[in-house]
Design a protein that fits this description.
GO terms for molecular function: ATP binding; glutamate 5-kinase activity; RNA binding. The chain is α/β, with parallel strands linked by helices. The protein has 12 helices and 14 strands. Helix 2 (31-46) crosses helix 4 and helix 3 crosses helix 4 (75-98).
């Protein structure tokens, strides 16, 4: 999709709404805002569009009932708030969509779901099935079970990755302001940026990373999510919930990010952006050249050294002997196993790669690409 006028014709859209847009200052859910968003998405659904809603707010919705003074910093309190708030949040969405006889389905992800091949395939299949049945999936990170070491970090990135997973044509990120500005909107002279054709257009801007008192992301996380989505051929719109209805009719609201790349493997993008590396594999120059220049798997003969402790199936970074990063991939051996077979050209299981080409993403100019 190259033009915002085409949003109304999009077959599949992903809409992400943040915690600050769904909660009142007292920490309780903002049912009026939730009803407004539901009404707009109901209209899109009834017009034949498949809608995926990425909804933050589970932790924020648990703050009030637990009597907490604000967003919890400790993981155990964060998880407790998520456990209390998730049911409240889902019940609120369910009640609103039920008014139009629309069924919703809860989909909770962890970053581990996209590292494990079987989990990833199941997630993709589950979302496709829900959409084919006319269900609106409500996606969120499973805050009740995630750890600091293995989490998406913010739902803006989760929304971008979900957009790749379901092959949506457009991602709409809803936030407290009506788009991206040249400076914080509270300052005189701030100007709305109506469209972005390349991320290089934003190099001169200072984009805040500060999120709200109940959320995890600021405008910086939304721009990063837009970059991720656009690089895979998905258009992105950043705007406010109040503008959602106008946005879906193609009106010039918010900030429109044009796609900058072509469709690519969702799995590789998820591996790149959602997973945490557990160790490092250093390869010789021959293997480095092969990995950089053409699609190939990494075999034990090309491994020079192993750093860190990891298990089979973990994500690892692959570096050249000079320290430069080649890419990252899912390792087929544990660090202990790999240490014993590194550099062995006669290894009996030579047909079993260290990193399969389908589980490898290549780095270039400071970024990781497929």
């Amino acid at each position: 999709m190259l033009n915002r006028l085409e949003i109304g014709q999009a077959t599949r859209i992903v809409v992400k709404v943040g915690s600050s847009s769904l909660t009142r200052p007292d920490g309780n859910l903002d049912f009026e805002q939730l009803a407004h968003i539901t009404k707009v998405l109901t209209s899109a659904h009834q017009n034949g569009q498949q809608v995926v809603l990425v909804s933050s707010g589970s932790t924020a919705a648990g703050i009030g009932p637990l009597g907490l003074s604000g967003k919890p910093r400790e993981m155990h309190l964060h998880q407790a708030a998520a456990m209390v708030g998730q049911s409240r949040l889902l019940a609120a969405w369910e009640a609103e969509f039920a008014k139009a006889n629309i069924t919703i389905g809860q989909v909770l992800f962890t970053a581990e779901d996209v590292v494990n091949r079987r989990h990833y395939a199941n997630a993709q299949s589950a979302l496709s099935t829900l959409l084919s049945l006319g269900v609106i999936p409500i996606v969120n990170e499973n805050d009740a079970v995630v750890t600091d070491e293995l989490r998406f970090g913010d739902n803006d990135r989760l929304a971008a990755l979900t957009s790749h997973l379901v092959a949506s044509e457009v991602l709409i990120l809803l936030t407290d302001v009506d788009g991206l500005y040249t400076m914080p909107p509270k300052f005189e002279g701030a100007r709305l940026i109506e469209e972005v054709r390349s991320m290089a257009d934003l190099d001169s801007l200072e984009i805040t990373s500060r999120g709200s008192t109940v959320g995890t992301g600021g405008m910086r996380t939304k721009v990063a999510a837009a970059d991720l989505a656009c690089s895979g051929g998905i258009a992105v719109l950043i705007t406010s919930p109040e503008n959602l209805g106008r946005a879906l009719t193609g009106e010039p609201v918010g900030t429109w990010f044009h796609p900058t790349g072509k469709r690519t493997s969702a799995r590789k993008l998820w591996l790149e952006h959602a997973a945490q590396v557990k160790g490092t594999i250093i390869v010789d120059d021959g293997a480095a050249s092969a990995l950089r220049r053409r699609g190939t798997s990494l075999l034990p003969v090309g491994v020079f050294a192993v750093a860190g402790k990891f298990s089979s199936g973990d994500l690892v970074e692959i570096r050249q002997m000079d320290g430069s990063t080649i890419g990252r991939g899912v390792c087929g051996f544990s660090s202990e196993e790999l240490t014993h077979i590194a550099g062995d050209k006669d290894f009996a299981h030579g047909l079993r790669p260290v990193v399969h080409v389908n589980d490898f993403v290549r780095a270039r100019q400071g970024h990781v690409v497929h």
